């Protein structure tokens, strides 16, 4: 059986493959979960695939970035059934931020660099870039006015979009060049920018601000094209459709104060700036959203620990993925859409097989709708450093106990 090889980097040491197999994964909560490992010592804030799909990166508030070599998964995922669950390995020495924790991660469009965004006391926001093949430091953007909260490469260019801001304070959207210049800086008055996204053609950049606005910019000029806004909605995550004509926003719809009780997905028409579809998928807010490159699936996740997969042409939830013991912060489809990566507050990085759901309405007319009605009782226990108890309206109970161990009972 082919094993998942784990890679990490130690500066200035070159990127090296981890060689020690610690333990196999325990029984999976979902047969489509093909990898699960507690790679970090704090919440996982971002996950991203390299453009060739061979590397998965994860960033964490433990101030590390870890890189996994997942090329073996592509060899195993050619069939219509999910691959065998792969054993977990630990990553060796990680990329270090020397700040207060990484809140953002991205790969450059050409796959040459991996970037991480964080904050350093006395220096402000910092974006660091490493050469993926060697782990050598390549670029550093320092003295940004506020913590870096989100990063997105702009296709068709060497620009990197960044969103910054303090809680309850002003933020900005910046376009950064590899040499460190900032050719464009779009201030966002009185609101931090939690998420930026770029369209696949590199023409448009979207930014989600804490004041409830979704701002649509022309990437190369900074011209504001649309300001999308819904009362009592704080967008936390954005994703473009593959053709760039639509945008999905997800976040907190709890009402005044955004206290975290109620999540909706909204799909916007970017030509008109009008709202096309609103999907009510649960009572808890969303933190992450992703749109498959073939256009057929939207993945959304957040406070209820589950990942919901929505078929775009029917707007129906066709599958729920269960495994995380705490809130999910980030989602990413692999370039070939066969895999979905997730990272959460439980310190775990997980990979899910979703290739059987891909394709248009003609290609998948007999696909099953696989959502969990939870007629049984499942119990999750994450022995973590945090304590988080969430009781849903169904019969699932997720409990985190502060015992200080790393065990997980699926």
Strand content: over 45%
Residue share in helix: under 10%
Mean of pLDDT: 77
Structural class: mainly beta
Q: What is the radius of gyration computed over CA atoms, rounded to a whole number of angstroms?
A: 20 Å
State the distance separating the first and last CA atoms: 23 Å
Form type: globular
Task: Give the arrangement of secondary structure elements.
Blueprint: E1 5-10, E2 13-17, E3 33-37, E4 44-49, E5 55-60, E6 64-69, H1 71-76, E7 95-96, E8 104-107, E9 113-120, E10 124-131, E11 137-144, E12 148-153, E13 160-165, E14 171-176, E15 184-188, E16 193-198, E17 204-209, E18 213-218, E19 224-229, E20 234-240, E21 246-252, E22 263-269, E23 274-282, E24 286-291, E25 297-302, E26 307-311, E27 316-321, E28 328-333, E29 339-344, E30 349-353, E31 379-383, E32 389-391, E33 397-401, E34 408-409
Parallel strand pairs: 31-33
Antiparallel strand pairs: 1-2, 1-6, 3-30, 4-5, 5-6, 6-7, 8-9, 9-10, 10-11, 12-13, 13-14, 14-15, 16-17, 17-18, 18-19, 20-21, 21-22, 22-23, 24-25, 25-26, 26-27, 28-29, 29-30, 31-34, 32-33
């Amino acid at each position: 059986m082919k094993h998942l090889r784990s890679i990490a980097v130690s500066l200035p040491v070159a990127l090296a493959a981890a060689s020690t197999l610690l333990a196999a994964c325990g029984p999976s909560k979902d047969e489509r979960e093909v990898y699960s490992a507690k790679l970090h010592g704090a919440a996982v804030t971002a996950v991203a695939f390299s453009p060739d799909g061979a590397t998965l990166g994860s960033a964490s508030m433990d101030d590390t970035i870890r890189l996994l070599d997942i090329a073996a998964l592509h060899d195993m995922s050619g069939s219509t059934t999910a691959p065998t669950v792969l054993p977990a390995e630990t990553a060796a020495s990680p990329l270090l931020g020397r700040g207060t924790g990484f809140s953002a991660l991205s790969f450059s469009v050409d796959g040459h660099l991996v970037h991480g965004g964080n904050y350093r006391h006395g220096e402000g926001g910092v974006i660091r870039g490493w050469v993926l093949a060697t782990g050598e430091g390549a670029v550093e953007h320092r003295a940004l006015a506020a913590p870096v909260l989100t990063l997105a490469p702009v296709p068709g260019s060497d620009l990197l979009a960044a969103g910054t801001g303090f809680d309850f304070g002003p933020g900005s959207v910046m376009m950064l060049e590899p040499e460190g210049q900032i050719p464009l800086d779009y201030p966002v008055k009185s609101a931090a920018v939690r998420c930026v996204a770029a369209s696949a053609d590199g023409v448009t950049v979207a930014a989600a601000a804490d004041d409830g606005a979704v701002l649509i910019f022309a990437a190369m000029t900074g011209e504001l094209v649309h300001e999308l806004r819904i009362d009592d909605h704080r967008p936390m995550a954005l994703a473009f459709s593959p053709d760039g004509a639509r945008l999905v926003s997800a976040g907190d719809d709890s009402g005044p104060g955004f206290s975290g009780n109620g999540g909706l997905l909204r799909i916007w028409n970017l030509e008109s700036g009008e709202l096309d579809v609103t999907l009510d998928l649960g009572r808890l807010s969303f933190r992450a959203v992703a749109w498959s490159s073939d256009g057929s699936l939207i993945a959304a996740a957040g406070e209820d620990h589950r990942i919901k997969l929505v078929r775009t042409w029917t707007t129906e939830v066709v599958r729920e993925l269960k495994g995380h013991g705490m809130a999910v912060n980030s989602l990413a489809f692999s370039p070939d859409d066969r895999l979905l990566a997730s990272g959460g507050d439980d310190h775990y990085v997980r990979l899910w097989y979703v290739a059987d759901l891909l394709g248009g309405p003609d290609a998948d007319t007999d696909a099953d709708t696989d959502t969990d009605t939870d007629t049984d009782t499942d119990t999750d226990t994450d022995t973590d450093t945090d304590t988080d108890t969430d009781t849903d309206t169904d019969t699932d109970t997720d409990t985190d106990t502060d015992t200080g161990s790393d065990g997980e009972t699926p």
